[in-house]
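Sequence, please.
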């Protein structure tokens, strides 16, 4: 037990001390013309099933009601690395990003009440853009190259509680604080470098917001579960030098899922979600997403597969970009069930208005129960 507790503290320490991202990281290019790329509120188990397990997983930050199934103090951490291939205007670019997107620590206060805290990525905001243009200086056209880079993210800090109202019904609520920052750098280089000097501009943008969510988990039978959730977030404020420079509406989001266990070593689940991003700016769209996945094998070493699809809230063009992905993963318990390692691999394709991304993502999760 001491070894498992030490592993928990080490994992949490690494997440707190490590950077949210690196300067060379590149998130999805579909978030450049909007607030960013929405994060996945999923643990590795849920991610490996295409997101279908998220409404039923206590170590995914999507819902709170499944926390009622946590019987002892537990912690779950997730890390992931993505490799992207970007196609735009006949040009291919390879990008890479690594993140620590989720942490959940939960434990019971009584036989029916469980509380939890942690964080998840709300918006990824790391990208780099290079453009060519001409400007008029003293009546003459001068060629310029502009480079704009953004490095950072908005994190969702969550305090949640779940209670088992009846043996067949659990409900959960959570309060959310949105916080984070980005370092934005702009560089302009002139083709005539002997006459005009390169110019630089740097700023750090701090973000803030609030939110609340509620969810329910209903056991229709011993093998059939239903889940539902709704979340409302306030406006996201952007501050530069202590002064608010922008305020943006955040979406109302809601969804649900169904899970069916076909015996002791097989289960399937499906989930849907709607997020009303349409009021978040001129390049924003309301989105719908779906997922379907399954898990086979013993609880000690299951095999997971899944498929997902849907839309992205930001991107060029009048229509929302689309995405489609397939997933697979494995899990392995150790130390008599006090710990578990989960591995997942996702292949994702995103398309919209001449822009295409193909993404491989490897995710690794550690869950410990001291």
């Amino acid at each position: 037990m001491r070894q498992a507790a030490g592993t928990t503290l080490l994992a949490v320490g690494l997440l707190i001390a490590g950077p949210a991202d690196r300067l060379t990281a590149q998130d999805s290019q579909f978030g450049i013309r909007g607030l960013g790329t929405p994060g996945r509120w999923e643990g590795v188990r849920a991610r490996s099933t295409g997101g279908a397990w998220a409404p039923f997983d206590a170590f995914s930050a999507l819902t709170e009601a499944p926390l009622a199934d946590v019987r002892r103090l537990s912690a779950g951490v997730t890390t992931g690395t993505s490799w992207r291939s970007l196609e735009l205007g006949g040009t291919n670019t390879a990008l890479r990003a690594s993140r620590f997107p989720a942490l959940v620590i939960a434990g019971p206060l009584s036989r029916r009440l469980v509380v939890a805290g942690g964080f998840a990525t709300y918006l990824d905001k790391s990208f780099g853009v290079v453009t060519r243009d001409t400007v008029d200086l003293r009546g003459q056209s001068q060629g310029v190259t502009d480079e704009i880079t953004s490095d950072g993210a908005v994190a969702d800090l969550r305090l949640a509680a779940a209670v088992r109202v009846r043996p067949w019904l659990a409900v959960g609520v959570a309060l959310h604080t949105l916080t984070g920052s980005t370092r934005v750098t702009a560089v302009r280089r002139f083709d005539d470098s002997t006459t005009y000097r390169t110019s630089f501009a740097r700023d750090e943008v701090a973000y803030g917001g609030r939110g609340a969510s509620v969810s329910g988990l209903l056991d229709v039978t011993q093998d059939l579960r239903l889940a539902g959730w709704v979340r409302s977030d306030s406006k996201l404020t952007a501050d530069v030098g202590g002064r608010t420079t922008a305020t943006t509406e955040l979406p109302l989001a809601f969804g649900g899922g169904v899970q069916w266990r076909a015996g002791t070593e097989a289960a399937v689940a499906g989930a849907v979600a709607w997020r009303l991003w349409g009021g978040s700016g001129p390049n924003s769209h309301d989105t719908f997403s779906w997922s379907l996945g399954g898990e086979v094998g013993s609880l000690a070493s299951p095999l997971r597969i899944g498929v997902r699809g849907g839309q992205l809230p930001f991107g060029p063009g009048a229509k929302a970009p689309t995405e489609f992905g397939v997933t697979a993963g494995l899990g392995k318990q150790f130390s008599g069930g006090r710990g578990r390692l989960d591995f997942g691999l996702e292949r994702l394709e995103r398309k919209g208005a001449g822009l295409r991304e193909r993404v491989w993502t490897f995710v690794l999760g550690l869950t410990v129960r001291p």
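The two ends are 5 Å apart (CA to CA).
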